[in-house]
Automatic annotation (TrEMBL):
<keyword id="KW-0176">Collagen</keyword>
<dbReference type="GO" id="GO:0005581">
    <property type="term" value="C:collagen trimer"/>
</dbReference>
<dbReference type="Pfam" id="PF00059">
    <property type="entry name" value="Lectin_C"/>
</dbReference>
<dbReference type="InterPro" id="IPR016187">
    <property type="entry name" value="CTDL_fold"/>
</dbReference>
<feature type="signal peptide">
    <location>
        <begin position="1"/>
        <end position="25"/>
    </location>
</feature>
<keyword id="KW-0732">Signal</keyword>
<feature type="domain" description="C-type lectin">
    <location>
        <begin position="120"/>
        <end position="187"/>
    </location>
</feature>
<dbReference type="InterPro" id="IPR016186">
    <property type="entry name" value="C-type_lectin-like/link_sf"/>
</dbReference>
<dbReference type="InterPro" id="IPR001304">
    <property type="entry name" value="C-type_lectin-like"/>
</dbReference>
<keyword id="KW-0430">Lectin</keyword>
<feature type="compositionally biased region" description="Low complexity">
    <location>
        <begin position="70"/>
        <end position="98"/>
    </location>
</feature>
<protein>
    <submittedName>
        <fullName>Mannose-binding protein C-like</fullName>
    </submittedName>
</protein>
<dbReference type="InterPro" id="IPR051077">
    <property type="entry name" value="Ca-dependent_lectin"/>
</dbReference>
<dbReference type="GO" id="GO:0005615">
    <property type="term" value="C:extracellular space"/>
</dbReference>
<feature type="region of interest" description="Disordered">
    <location>
        <begin position="30"/>
        <end position="100"/>
    </location>
</feature>
<dbReference type="GO" id="GO:0030246">
    <property type="term" value="F:carbohydrate binding"/>
</dbReference>
<dbReference type="GO" id="GO:0005771">
    <property type="term" value="C:multivesicular body"/>
</dbReference>
Length: 189
């Protein structure tokens, strides 16, 4: 650096230098190319562009080989079909269980009294009545007792069973639900 005393001279020298630099830049003189430098580093990727317009549909692909999807919802029922022709008569079935045929069937006061006229002990009679959906009769008033006495006469039996027992306490009779009796006006023994 040279120091000049006059500032005008410094400005003129600077202007002259600037002019020379500009003239050199605009010069069309060919010069030898220098040695190329090493390539620079890649920059950051640019931002994504916008989606373009949809293209035409492609060709239909081959059918898939995957698992079948879940079933859809059940649709509404269709119209009812007309009735078909009556089929041929089937073979006769095997006979059902032997039903009890009551020889005596009487009704009094909304209760039904039935008998098959068989002789049995008390336990077998109790089982028979229970299996038939009933119970051993127990008169609760004079009308029911008279009906049982008339059945007794028709059957010609020497005794008739009624739904009472003294199995828990000898001589103390109760009904089949272990409740005290409300009617006891029947023949002694």
């Amino acid at each position: 650096f040279l120091m000049f005393k006059h500032s005008k001279f410094i400005c003129a020298a600077l202007l002259l230098m600037e002019f020379m630099v500009l003239a050199a830049a605009q010069s069309s003189c060919p010069t030898n190319a220098g040695v190329p430098g090493s390539p620079g580093h890649n920059g950051s990727p640019g931002r994504d562009g916008r989606d373009g317009f949809p293209g035409p549909n492609g060709e239909k692909g081959d059918p898939g080989v995957g698992a079948q999807g879940p079933p859809g919802k059940i649709g509404p029922a269709g119209p009812a079909a007309p009735a078909g022709a009556v089929g041929p008569k089937g073979q006769k079935g095997s006979p059902g269980p032997q039903a009890s045929r009551f020889s005596i069937f009487r009704n009094i006061g909304g209760k039904y009294y039935v008998s098959d006229a068989l002789t049995a002990n008390y336990n077998d009679g109790l089982k028979f009545c229970t299996n038939a959906g009933g119970r051993i009769a127990l008169p609760t008033n004079k009308e029911e007792n008279n009906l049982l006495m008339s059945l007794h006469a028709v059957l010609g039996s020497s005794y008739i069973m009624i739904g009472t027992t003294d199995i828990r306490i000898e001589g103390t009779f109760v009904d089949m639900h272990n409740q005290p009796l409300t009617f006891t006006k029947w023949k002694k023994n």
